[in-house]
Write a structure and sequence with these properties.
With 372 residues, this protein is an alpha+beta fold. It folds into two domains: 198 residues, Aminopeptidase (3-Layer(aba) Sandwich), CATH 3.40.630; 140 residues, Gcn5-related N-acetyltransferase (GNAT) (Aminopeptidase), CATH 3.40.630. It contains twelve helices and 13 strands. Strands 1, 2, 3, 4, 5, 6, 7, 8, 9, 10, 11, 12 and 13 form a 13-stranded mixed β-sheet that branches. GO terms for molecular function: acyltransferase activity, transferring groups other than amino-acyl groups.
């Protein structure tokens, strides 16, 4: 049964049914499906982007009917130049490790497919037209990915998929830290043991894990001090990380680890615990203390906490195939993107030719000018 697609232009104006769906999705799918995540990202990390939330409601009534699916998207406020396509993009950027439609739990495959088809059809038919639609980064192994591809193709758009990044994660399988630590590579185990002894014998070291709002400002200050002393470039959006830390503290998700050496913040790591998953979001260490492997020692402390105290079922290193991640994790999966080109528009057609290739031009034309 098809539903009514409504478009909302702000989180503050969402009806109660949409808020309930966000809450349900956060419990089941984690932070990247939560309203607090999207709200902080929009406020501190997306610049001049304008929000556009597509909601698939269960009835045609104008009231606050039950909502089955939400798709938070963005577009630029300013009008594009004459040669620029008009793009609709997922409410995500380089701070986002996962994105996807917000769906009710327990939906059967057929209902999910119909809902995605309704959303794609609505987006493809809007006026003024969207020339290009982008969804990223998505779990390529989740059924929603292939169904999104099929939905936009069914709506008459040409679709291309692409690799975004690898994602390393640990399946805990009920282990406590001591059991897990035995499975680490010998090189890493030896480093942790040796550097722990060295640190204890030559420095006054202290490790803290901040969880509460009462300590959050001190934690932010320590994190920012470490980050400025690290090898990492300045944040493109300076307010995003502090906003994320405060939001996670309010939600009870925060695990902000800070290692102090002789009273100086030497390493800091932002971990986030939701839905039985500990996500390692951001880490840095002061290069002056690099020889002590202080970052690895802090990782071990946080790992012990989430396994023995939080009792998580999974630890997720989120974004990237950095070599050190495979030492701590057990499995790898991939995040991919979807880009759909509106073949009914000149900009969309030209963008499709540039990205998909001229050899498919005949096929593309047949999709918008079917033979009789």
């Amino acid at each position: 049964m098809s539903g009514r697609v409504a478009v909302h232009d702000g989180f503050d104006a969402l009806p109660a049914s949409c808020l309930s769906l966000f809450e349900e999705a956060a419990r089941e799918a984690g932070m990247f499906s939560s309203l607090p995540w999207f709200a902080n990202l929009l406020q501190t990390g997306l610049g001049n982007s304008r929000l556009r939330i597509y909601g698939l409601h269960a009835s045609d009534n104008e009231g606050d009917s039950a909502v089955r699916m939400l798709l938070p998207m963005t577009h630029q406020l300013e009008a594009p130049g004459i040669a620029a396509p008009r793009e609709l993009s997922s409410c995500a950027n380089f701070y986002s490790s996962l994105f996807g439609p917000i769906t009710a739990c327990g939906r059967d495959a057929g209902a999910l497919e119909r809902d995605l088809a309704d959303l794609a059809k609505t987006i493809a038919a809007e006026s003024p037209a969207w020339h290009v639609v982008r969804l990223h980064p998505m779990a390529v192994d989740h059924p929603v990915f292939d169904r999104c591809v099929a939905a936009f193709r069914q709506a008459g758009m040409a679709v291309q998929t692409y690799f975004c990044f690898g994602n390393w994660y640990l399946q805990v399988d009920g282990r406590r830290y001591q059991e897990y630590a035995k499975s680490l590579p010998s090189r890493l185990k030896n480093t942790l043991a040796r550097k722990s002894r060295q640190l204890a014998s030559s420095h006054d070291a202290r490790f803290v894990i901040i969880r509460d709002e009462t300590e959050v400002e001190e934690g932010i200050a320590a994190f920012e001090q470490v980050y400025r002393s690290s090898w990492k470039p300045a944040e493109a959006h300076p307010d995003f990380i502090a906003g994320l830390i405060r939001m996670c503290a309010r939600q009870g998700w925060l695990r902000l680890g800070v290692a102090y050496i002789d009273g100086v913040p030497a390493a800091a790591q932002l971990w986030i615990v939701t839905d039985g998953v500990a996500s390692i979001y951001k880490l840095a260490y002061d290069e002056r203390f690099g020889a002590l492997s202080i970052g690895s020692l802090l990782t071990a402390r946080l790992m012990e906490h989430v396994l023995d105290v939080d009792r998580v079922r999974e630890v997720d290193y989120l974004t990237g195939d950095d070599a050190y991640k495979r030492d701590w994790m057990s499995h790898r999966r991939e995040r991919w993107g979807i880009v759909a080109f509106n073949l009914r528009t000149v900009h969309g057609l030209l963008a499709a030719i540039r990205n998909i290739g001229g050899r498919h031009l005949k096929t593309l034309w047949r999709r918008i000018r079917p033979e009789k």
